[in-house]
Design goal:
This protein is of the alpha+beta class. It has one domain: Alpha-Beta Plaits. The two termini are about 15 Å apart. The site of iron/sulfur cluster has 13 residues, from α3.
Length: about 90
């Protein structure tokens, strides 16, 4: 297959795999990160009593909203691959 097709397959597998999302440690969340506590449709994001944002990604719907809003700014990290899914599985 052409490289582009392989890349597409990898992208597809990555997106289809269940993400493991982590929040960068912070003292004060950015506006976007804080907004996730209201926006995330699965309610994965919550605010702690001390004002940080934490995530419990178990029920994540993979809508991608937090990735769009927070990953570029470095507020959250999507870690791939995870447990048998993702690029390493594809190449492995
Ligand atoms: Fe919530 Fe969507 Fe981010 Fe999953 S991808 S944690 S459902 S905003």
């Amino acid at each position: 297959a052409r490289v582009e097709e392989k890349l597409f397959q990898n992208r597809y597998l990555v997106d289809a795999g269940k993400p493991h999302i982590a929040i960068r440690p912070h003292e004060k969340p950015s506006e976007n990160l804080l907004a996730m506590t209201r926006i995330c449709p699965a309610g994965c994001y919550s605010e702690t009593s001390s004002g940080q944002v934490e995530i419990t990604p178990d029920g994540c719907l993979e809508c991608g909203t937090c990735r769009v809003l927070c990953e570029v700014a470095g507020d959250v990290v999507w870690n791939y691959p995870r447990g048998g899914f993702g690029i390493l599985f594809k190449f492995g």
